[in-house]
Please model this.
Amino acid sequence: MRRDLAVLVMALSSAVLLFAAVHAQAQTVGTYVLRSPAVFVDPELTGEAQVLCNGSDVATGGGLASSVGSTAEKMHVSDSFPISDASGAPALDNAAPHGWKIIVFNPTLESLELQAFVVCLTNRWALTVSTAGTGTGTVSSSDGSISCPGTCTAAYNGGTSVTLTATPGTGSIFAGWTGCDTVLDTTCTVTMSASRLVTATFDVQRFTLTVSTAGTGTGTVSSSDGLINSCSGTCTATYNSGTSVTLTATPDAGSIFTGWTGCDTVLDTTCTVSMSASRSVTATFDVP
Model:
């Protein structure tokens, strides 16, 4: 005897239970309506139905929803009240209700169909992501709402668990998170019980340049930036990823410069290397 359903409001609470201290931090506040499964009440009997809001969302009102037509008008609502949980117990004074329950008497000679409905209030909290450090990178959420830089703020329902993933840019490394509930390598998880700020730090990747001298003669190697200065033997310096380093070989008196190994480009006594990884360069000096 199921009919097409449309909402018919038979009872609606005028009390809207809002908690200003909680909502003050919310990005937005939204409402939605849920209905219980259909319940059939036989003639001369009492039936009841109840429905709960999602998660910890708060019920702000509710009542009877039933099929359009004379059957709805024949129902007698014995009681309609907010409930605290699935037990169906009435919500206590000053406690936030999380659902609605109705009790209906069917005085007719035919079965009647009923549903309870509830109007729910949901908090939507702001999650803001920022990046920091000397390097570059991106942060994205598993649901696609955040892709930062670009879209760095999104609003989520209270209780939502959000997973963020950090991806370092070329020449950068991921250095860490702040503001997460749990962290696993480049993954951060936050539960939206309030507005949250999460920061991902990316630093420029740094590589070591090792310079050595070899051969039967002697001489020195220096870099144009001065980090390697008159090196004889083995010397090292650290550079940001992508840095171009120019080295110059200078033979001592009685020696000649005979060549480089490990360079990207060579011009006479000059060697150039690009620090996209740790590098080793050798300058050879021989006795003529």
Remarks:
- Residues 124-204 form one domain.
- The longest strand covers residues 112-132.
- Residues 1-26 have pLDDT under 50 and may be disordered.
